[in-house]
C-alpha cells in the first residue's frame, strides 16, 4: 500500500546527542514536511521541502536539520542544540506544494523522549 | 497563524450525526477548506476538502456556506471510533497548513 513510513515509533535521546528520525514515502509526492506536536497543542512546522536537494525552514527550525537527497526520503536530525526535544514528530507529504488544492498525508509519528 | 476558528470541544451520541462547525471569515476566493482528524498518538488523517461546493466522500460531508465564511463537517452516523480531535484548515500562501488545537469530539455510547 502507498503511504508514509516513519521510524522508529519511539526514540530516546541522551543529553548532548544528535538523533535522526526517518521518513519515507512511496506516494511519488514532490513535497515533504516535518511537524512537531507538544501535548495538548497543535502542529508546528519545522522544515519543508518542495523538491529534491531543496528545503526551507518552517516556524521552529532552530535545533533541527534536514536533507532531501531522494524524492522518497526526508530525514530529520534533532541536534543537541534543540534544548527541549521531547515531543511527537510528524512527517507529511503532498503533491506540488505551491498548488492550493493538495492535501497533506501524514505518517504515524515518532515520539522522542530525553533520558 | 490560523485562519480558522473552531469550538474547543463537542459531544455527540453514538449513531447520531456529528456536526462540527468552523469559521473562516477571512478566506479568499481561491482558498480551499480542509478537514483532518487526529486520534490520540497517531498522525492526522485527511478527511475531506472543498472550495465552494458541498462535498461528500465515504467518511464525511462538507457543507460550505454560500459566502464561504464558514463550513460544517458532518459525520452522518458517529461511532465511538470517531472520537478524535478535528482540525479545520485553510492553508496559507504556498499551501502551508496550520494545525491549531481543533475541536475535540467525544462520541458517547
What distance lies between the first and last C-alpha atoms of chain B, to the nearest angstrom? 36 Å
Shape of chain B: globular
Using DSSP, what is the number of strands of chain B?
9
Strand content of chain A: over 45%
**SS field, number of helical segments of chain B:** 0
Supply the helix-strand structural class of chain B.
mainly beta
Major sheet details of chain B: 5 strands, mixed
Q: What separation lies between the terminal Cα atoms of chain A? A: 35 Å
**Radius of gyration of chain B from the CA trace?**
13 Å
- Approximately how much helix is present in the residues of chain B? under 10%
Number of helices of chain A: 0
Residues in helices of chain A, as a percent range: under 10%
| Strand elements of chain A, count | 11
- The unreliable regions of chain B are none
Order of helices and strands of chain B: EEEEEEEEE
Question: How would you describe the oligomerization state of the chains in this entry?
Answer: heterodimer
Low-confidence stretches of chain A: none
Q: What is the C-alpha radius of gyration of chain A, as a whole number of Å?
A: 13 Å
Looking across the biggest beta sheet of chain B, what order are the strands in? 1-9-8-3-4
Tell me the greatest interface.
A-B, 28 and 23 residues
